[in-house]
Amino acid sequence: MISNGANSQPSIRYAQKAHSGLQLLKWLARKNAHVDAVSGTEVLKAIHAGFPVEHIELATDVLDRRSLKVIEEHEVRVNIGTLSMIPELASTPCRECTLRINPGFGGGHDQKVTTGGSASKHGIWWEQLPQAYEMATANNLTVTGLHMHIGSGVTLDLLEKQIRFMQDCLYEAPGSVSRISTGGGLPIPYQPHETEFAVEQWSQTWLEARNRWQVDLDRPIHLEVEPGRFLVAQAGILITEVRGTKSTPDHDWIMVDAGFHTLARPLLYGSYHEVVALRKTSGKSWPQLVAGPLCESGDVLTTGPSGELQPRHLPKQKTGDYLALLDVGAYGISMASGYNGFELPAEVTFEEGQSRLTRARQTPQEQWIQELS
What is the pLDDT of residues 49-61, one digit of tens each? Predict the structure, then answer.
């Protein structure tokens, strides 16, 4: 899957926000992948993991002071999502940039992850692109690429529309534009009835469009793909211990030591994660809810898109049993928090039949070590 873009093949720019584990980043750097960072700190972590600066792009809609400092120190290229960022870059060594386009439409499995359209904060509104080119020239910046990420959970239904829109933008862009990013958002089958995304068809359609653009414009156009979740989601499993059970008139509950501090996606997006009981039993299964330890009514790991409770068919559980929540490799640990004083969990990596600890469990003292007494 990993390509460095040689032989006219698309290059992979991993979306670090999905999972920024150091061992994963080191593995991707060894594979010659490129990486997308959202903050100055993510840039620094990518450099620490072994990515050359030319393989790192800072993609953001806000340039905070930390990010500006990192740009000045490391001359990292920026993917600009807001017009006001352009003059801010004029005083930095950054002389190349890409523009993130908001095409006026988007797609995603939830409104919170739809990143195109007038309700989205992301990108430069497409009608403002001529102004962006003028501002870049006035500030001694060369626009070398266009980027369009329209949401997390893209479908083939929107693909042709996205490609036509990108073509219109490319044909009106300066001749310095030689790189197109498809964005990411490639889905995975979280639910049992869902099928694998037709990634071959998706990629072939983009490649055919890129080849056509090269002929029409008579210059090379490099294609870049920006997967995050698609690469890592199915590689992650959350193991949580059952700490008790309870019943109310309408529901049976399995109480576990993981909550939305460990996996935020069900609370934020009503996301589905399959739950598997790890103790083998011949007993019957029935609908039960899985909830965590936080002092919040929303701390339920089995909810639907509108926040409704969605029980899962599970066998009888007892204290000390374990459940597995599947497909948590993306936006699991990267969105975890220390809310209510619960420590961030450990991570164990399995590779070629061997396991090793790649993230130690946070200690209680590490939660307050930065506070000043």
Answer: 999 999 999 999 9
